[in-house]
Amino acid sequence: xxxxxxxxxxxxxxxxxxxxxxxxxxxxxxxxxxxxxxxxxxxxxxxxxxxxxxxxxxxxxxxxxxxxxxxxxxxxxxxxxxxxxxxxxxxxxxxxxxxxxxxxxxxxxxxxxxxxxxxxxxxxxxxxxxxxxxxxxxxxxxxxxxxxxxxxxxx
Length: 155
What we know:
The chain has helices at 6-25, 80-94, 140-143; strands spanning 2-3, 30-32, 45-57, 65-76, 98-105, 114-132, 145-154. By secondary structure, it is α+β, with helices and mostly antiparallel strands. The protein has one domain (2-154): STM4215-like. Strand 5 and strand 6 form a beta hairpin.
């Protein structure tokens, strides 16, 4: 078995949680891991991606680090109303944090991931929750966009 790093586990846990939440409550919405991939699907599409990870020392003089990761959720909607509804849905879905899963896969297997719950990922703060302005004649994906960003930490 190949075990994934903590950072990769955080990313996959959050993507899985957002995708599962959207699939349980909405139909016809694709969730992708990459901003660029969103343009390969018809709207509506939700893109979830880890933007960065910052590391801080737990204590002065110590070598242990705590990591805080920033995520961006981009919403590509069909209408302004759908954009607002999806934005509110994503905010409510993420505000309580996420189950943290440890992922692994059999060596050589690129399709199936095994996951085991092992704690929680805490949402620290929302950084951004806003409409992305478009211009007249914008491509369909860019007409009704919204961006939500937040930071998380696995304690």
